[in-house]
Amino acid sequence: MAPEQKARQQIDQQLTDCGWLVQRASEMNISAGRWRSFDYEELMKRDKVNLDVFWLKDKSLEDSEDLPDPDVLAQEIADDLQTALEDFSSIAEGLKE
Q: Facing residues of 22 across strands?
């Protein structure tokens, strides 16, 4: 199996584990789930496909000299993830009631 195919299988499994419905665009069932993932090849077959994500740029981070040290960034990410986990845990507990 090619490395790309193996990676695709692993990504698809992770998406499925997170509640995504992995399906081909040609066989898409839009009522089957909220989150859907499509193969790159399937997307490229569509008319007017544009995968340009230039609009995602954060202009405040364009100059790498202004970035915090890697350990500071890593700690900020860890803190954000911990907060998100606590928020989701709270939501999950609320749903049990």
A: 37
